[in-house]
């Protein structure tokens, strides 16, 4: 149940992005749900590999290169999912940060932390 609620929270965060940025478009809630699912899968499967492969650059940049990886994956998902579009890398960079902040805030407000993992 918690996984389903997290997925819905992430979709809601994606739906909020077009109101904050003109360069991000989400056509409908179905596109947001699919994009949230694909983004979750990409972050689970591809992101760890990229983090390990770019570890030297990440260490030299004091971890800031992780933001570049997040932006690239966000941009990749916008190319994979119909109805979800980000205009460029700069927009993806800012959108990925906003998406993380919104999803964190909604998760903090809506998910009860009862000590269970």
Looking at this protein, list some descriptive labels:
mainly alpha; 2 strands; 74% helix; globular
Summarize, please.
The chain has 117 residues and is mainly alpha-helical. It has helices at residues 2-20, 29-45, 47-53, 55-60, 65-80, 89-110; strands at residues 24-26, 84-86. The protein has one domain.
Structure description:
About 75% of the residues lie in helices and about 5% in strands. It starts with a helix and ends in a 7-residue tail after the last helix. The protein has a two-stranded antiparallel ribbon. The protein has one domain (about 1-110). It is mostly helical and about 120 residues long. It has helices spanning about 1-20, 30-45, 45-55, 55-60, 65-80, 90-110, and strands at about 25, 85.
Question: Secondary-structure map with pairings?
Answer:
Blueprint: H1 2-20, E1 24-26, H2 29-45, H3 47-53, H4 55-60, H5 65-80, E2 84-86, H6 89-110
Antiparallel strand pairs: 1-2
Largest sheet: 2 strands, antiparallel
What count of structural domains?
Answer: 1
Shape: globular
Total E-strand runs: 2
How far apart lie the N and C ends? 13 Å
Which strands sit side by side, in order, in the main sheet?
Answer: 1-2
What is the H-and-E element order? HEHHHHEH
> Runs with pLDDT <50, length 5+?
none
**Total of helices:** 6
